[in-house]
Amino acid sequence: VKNLTLVCQDWGGLTGLSVVKDCPDKFSRLVIMNTGLPDGCDYTLANVWKLTPFMVWQSVVELLGKHLPIKLVFRLAMRGVSKEVLAMYDAPFPSSIYRGGAAQWPLLVPLRSSDLISGDMKKSKEFLKNAWRSPALIMFSDDDPITGAMRQSFEQMLPHAK
Q1: Residue 50 has pLDDT above 80, yes or no
Q2: pLDDT at 159
């Protein structure tokens, strides 16, 4: 299999872009949307507040697992969002048997630079910045409260991207 286009969004960027790094000969194009490559940080009391909302989310996920109340989590994370938008976030998870991914993905995000997966995320960033020269398209929502700030990171890694 060759000449693949990776289209990654949200959690798909964390896994998909690592695969591109590991098998670059399989891919010819990237479409990167509302995602990130978090590699952890070394937090202090002065800057840990930036991470607090995500740490709360990870803690809730760890405690509740597949019984995570998806709509409530998004309502708390995105204040002022309409009932219709919340219903769309909740729709893919009609019962706990559909929440396995939602119960695991947040636990895989590295918070500290010493976390196991942190090194792989750093290598993926380095690969994109130093080795990826094929076409790339970066598309981020203007209003995404979670990943919106990561757009600039991808634009710096991939200055040739559209």
Answers
A1: no
A2: 96
Smallest CA-to-CA distance from 64 within 15, 35, 106 is with 106
> Which residue has tokens 């938008």?
85
- Find all residues with CB under 8 Å of 45, minimum gap 6, and list them: none
Distance, CA of 108 to CA of 101 (rounded, Å):
11
CA distance 158 to 162: 9
> Tell me: the pLDDT tens digits for 20-43?
999 999 999 999 999 999 998 877
Distance separating alpha carbons of residues 64 and 30, to the nearest angstrom: 35
Place of tokens 């989590």: 73
Query: Given a cut of 80, is residue 47 above it in pLDDT?
Result: no
Q: Rg (Cα) of the chain, in Å, rounded? A: 17
